[in-house]
Amino acid sequence: MTISVKLQTLTPFWTGNVGKICDRVRETGIIGSLRWWYEAFVRGFGVYACDPTHSDCQGFSSCKVCKLFGCNGLSRGFDIRVEDSTHPEKIVDQQVVALPNDKGRRRSKWYFSPGHEGLLDLKITPTRCNEEELNGLKIVLKILELWGAIGSRTHLGYGVFQCINEGGEYNLSTEEIESGLANFESGNRTSNLPDLKFFFFSKLKLDGDFTNCIKRLENSLELRYDLRQLFREDNKLRYDIMGTIRGERRGSKIFISRVYQVREINEMRVWGWIPQAIENRSEVVDRIYEKISEFDQNLEWREFDSKRDKYGKASDVPTFVKENLLEVQI
Ligand SMILES: [Zn+2]
């Protein structure tokens, strides 16, 4: 019943220690990331998941997420082991990247700390959790592989990966998918915390030569710059969506990968969540969609209950996960 899979980096992993340096890939960074996404899934399916920063969850009377990931008085329901065969990435020019001053973009410098590239052997073994929960976790990992990233600083482009197992690609069986979807149950709650119903996922194909690692970063920075500019007249909205380190620190709700190569195609992915509480939410998502489309007219876009999703408007969340995100017809 153990999940055993290798993660191959497409963009470097970043999991920092207390000194904010990534000296190796840490289990805690992987677990933190899996938990954040598992929460978004539980809420997406309409079920309560506590806010881990203000949680009252305790022991067996806790929310669905704490039951699996542990909380006060309850250990984690699974054991996780990471065998780290990665190495520090080589970034030229002391990790400083200057955004080119074209298309009216202001020149600015970005500092990157090196992440780790290579192979990570991941083993997840149940200690208390059941098979459905483990399959739920497998679905989350698969969606991260297809549409997201893992570890810390994913908003800065780290942590895109490909799963590999003995037979090549890591695919889930019909039984694993059905069981994993059943694990998330169904309710009718919505939340202003990360909730899959309010996420979008996109992939862009890019033309050009990206053999230089700085070039792979530049596109990502240009898009981030352009998205910030979209909301330049409205500071509150901009800080809400793109994050800020001014005043009350807020994390970015938009995540933009670096350019990576997969099947000889240069690709970049952008995903994020715009809470339902954001005023004119649909219009905001539309502006983001239009801006990202400028980088690739034929971009792939996934979004629950939305006509922007060219794959089709899914009527319920399990169908959306199965057909639009996992792209399987059962
Ligand atoms: Zn909880």
In words, what does this structure look like?
- The strands form three sheets. The chain has a five-stranded antiparallel sheet, with helices on one face. Strands 8, 9, 10, 11 and 12 form a five-stranded antiparallel sheet that branches.
- The chain has two domains: 3-183, no CATH class; 196-325, 2-Layer Sandwich (Alpha-Beta Plaits), CATH 3.30.70.
- It has helices at 27-44, 64-69, 131-147, 174-183, 213-230, 235-242, 281-293, 317-325; strands at residues 3-9, 78-88, 96-98, 109-111, 116-126, 161-165, 168-169, 199-206, 254-256, 260-262, 265-273, 300-303.
- The chain is globular, with a radius of gyration of 19 Å.
- With 330 residues, the protein is of the alpha+beta class.
- The chain has eight helices and twelve strands.
- The structure holds zinc ion.
- Zinc ion is lined by residues 50, 55, 57, 62-63, 65-66, 71.
- The site of zinc ion has 8 residues, from helix 2.
Task: Sum up the structure in keywords.
330 residues; alpha+beta; Alpha-Beta Plaits; 2 domains; five-stranded antiparallel beta sheet; 8 helices; 12 strands; binds zinc ion
